[in-house]
């Protein structure tokens, strides 16, 4: 039964020839029947109408088997069979039995049955339509035909099934409700076989059929004209055309489905991003409204905000990826998708940019709060340092240290002013930012929260202003006190300087004011200079006294005891008494010198002829007494109230002054002698 086939040969009526080779082994009639049904289903109705010639090859079988096969043909293909040729073996069966049986059944069978030898089969069928087994020339390879038939059957089955699946997939979106369409497409979206593989198989099969050869590889003879009908080349072409058409539609459906799926995925992701940003993301920002009350609190809020930003960054990364995907779809998408894509892109961008702006605003607000608290802390430390200086008693060593301390105090106060101004600027900037928070309040009334922040900022600035005002008041008091101390030190220094000056005047009086003049005029000039010198000393003494009196007043104001005025006043009075004693001695000597020089000059200028001169001899005695008294004073030291002594000038200076007086006294004595000589001469006469 394996070789039961349609060889492609034709009888003289152009009917197809069906060959049934029988063998020694037992033949299954059921299998034979099924095989005949299959073979008879291959030709077209047109071919079937021309009838079949059946060749039953019984050369290797028994008569009863042949008879059974012939009778079976009546049940399987009674209308299509026109002639049954039974090829008998060389060992002829019982002619009587066989002839009687077939003749007897002729009318009932409906077709003619003849017994014929293989070499006489050409009487009924042309040799070119018979295979070599029956002495013909028709080339036929049953295995090759069977393999091609199997390929055809597989292709037909797969292509038919694939066409049904593709049709269901392609038409699934056109019928039923949306839910049914989606379910139909989901269940049959992937065909059971690969369309590309089926198409390739069909093309290869069609190529084989179009070559009109059973086996193109071994150079076989071309098929008969019936091969197209036997192997259904048009059916293969029709299936291929249908497959290509459905596959093209399927590819378009897949493309549309992929595009829709991608669009739905993008839409789903967009909604995930939007829902998170407008939900948990916004809720996180709603709960973060404070600015902290210190640097540490602001830093903690910044750290919390960074955690929130980190969570947002993950969603912003998704936004960037989605935006790129949407942009790619916009560049390559259909017009029907442009509106939806642009709407998604706009919605995503609006939400992301709004959330990013809120994050940036919050970050800027916290940074401004941190800067405000940093400035406030620095200012507080400056005020603490300034207050510490003001709380320490001032005990400077001199006026220079007081000036330095006062300068440092002024610098600190100026630094506090600058810091407070900076705090006000930072605070105002922070208040301005807080006032703008209402524009993105996440749907929440932030008036209460903002009021707490505003009250805190204003409270810090007011507290710093009050502390600064208290420090300013204390600085004013300290400045006044320090200026008084500077004035006190200045008075003490100037009083000490006055004592020094007076001491220098005294020293100059003793060491340089030693000349008594060469004549009365010069002595009077020296006397006048001395009086002016005494006036300078008096002014110096009075200035020192005034400074010391001011020192007493300042000490009383500062409630402190002067460190130097206690010994300065005695020193001033002691030097002044010494100067007074020395000055009086100097005046006395100059006055004596004036009297001496005046009398001496008067005597020396008188003419000897004047008679009244002889009557004034007592003037010589007077001038001698004055001269001696003056000489005596030059040798006597100045005795101070404390018992100490001091000489004018050096001994040589005093000797020079005394020598000049002695010379003047010698001239006076000589004059006296000249006046006495005429007086002595007259009595003798």
From TrEMBL:
Q: Which PROSITE patterns match?
A: CRAL_TRIO (PS50191)
- Key words, A-Z: Repeat
One Pfam family it belongs to:
Spectrin_SESTD1
The UniProt record lists the CRAL-TRIO domain at: 1-142
InterPro entries found in the cross-reference section: CRAL-TRIO_dom (IPR001251), Spectrin_SESTD1 (IPR056804)
The record's GO molecular-function terms, alphabetically, read:
phosphatidylinositol-3,4-bisphosphate binding; phosphatidylinositol-3,5-bisphosphate binding; phosphatidylinositol-3-phosphate binding; phosphatidylinositol-4,5-bisphosphate binding; phosphatidylinositol-4-phosphate binding; phosphatidylinositol-5-phosphate binding
**Keyword Transferase among record annotations:** no
Q: Does the keyword Kinase apply?
A: no
The record's PANTHER family line, in alphabetical order, gives: SEC14 DOMAIN AND SPECTRIN REPEAT-CONTAINING PROTEIN 1
Q: Which family, according to UniProt?
A: Belongs to the SOLO family.
Recorded protein name is: SESD1 protein
